[in-house]
Specification:
single chain, about 200 residues, alpha/beta, 7-stranded mixed β-sheet, 7 strands, elongated, hydrolase, cytoplasm, nucleoside triphosphate diphosphatase activity
Length: about 200
């Protein structure tokens, strides 16, 4: 099925997982990396931080000439554990400690979503929350996973679509949200702006 979407779609993220989810849903976004310094922003709650980061990324890209007239999607994820917001671990040591603290427990993956319509200046934003139940990988399994380098590049030091999938016992909520983007929430936010997601199919 070849068709021309009604609007240009821009993803303000370098996440291959988010891009993959959008493509699987029939969308064909361009990618413009925001360059937002994630460490420079803070909020009272993990959910609030995820939303603030998503809005900052969308706004940074929407202000560029190459995004003129487009719908810009900004997303950011953090893992909430013990009330703390955990993003990407700084190094292997932190990733190892993170996994040892997470195993056998549950955390909440908070993903902020922001859709900004550069044609009208309107935006819609919200946070999706999914509970993640972690298994109990051994110290050796954690060491092997950290050595792979993968946890250094993902929020919460884990992902459902990579090497750590066997260490996740289950989730309660939207699977896509844990990977990086909630398609049902995206549909809702687009509808708030008067746009049907089906009109964006490529």
């Amino acid at each position: 099925m070849n068709r021309t979407p009604s609007r240009r779609l821009v993803l303000a993220s370098q996440s291959p997982a988010r891009l993959g989810l959008l493509r699987q849903a029939g969308l064909a976004p361009e990618v413009i990396v925001s360059g937002v310094d994630e460490d420079a922003l803070d909020a009272p709650t993990p959910a609030g931080l995820a939303l603030l980061l998503a809005e900052a990324k969308a706004a940074a890209v929407a202000g560029r000439a190459e995004a003129a007239g487009a719908l810009v999607i900004g997303c950011d994820s953090v893992l909430e554990l013990d009330g703390q917001a955990l993003g990407k671990p700084a190094d292997a040591e932190e990733a190892t400690a993170r996994w040892k603290s997470m195993r056998g427990r549950s955390g909440v993956l908070q993903t902020g979503h922001c859709v900004l319509d550069t044609a009208t200046g309107r935006q819609a934003s919200a946070t999706a929350s999914t509970t993640v139940r972690f298994g109990e990988p051994s110290d050796a399994e954690i060491a092997a996973y950290v050595a792979s380098g993968e946890p250094l590049h993902v929020a919460g030091a884990f992902t459902l679509d990579g090497r750590s999938a066997p260490f996740v016992e289950g989730i309660d909520g939207d699977h896509g949200n844990v990977i990086g983007l909630s398609l049902p929430l995206l549909r809702t936010l687009l509808a708030e702006l008067g746009i049907q997601i089906t009109d964006l199919w490529a």
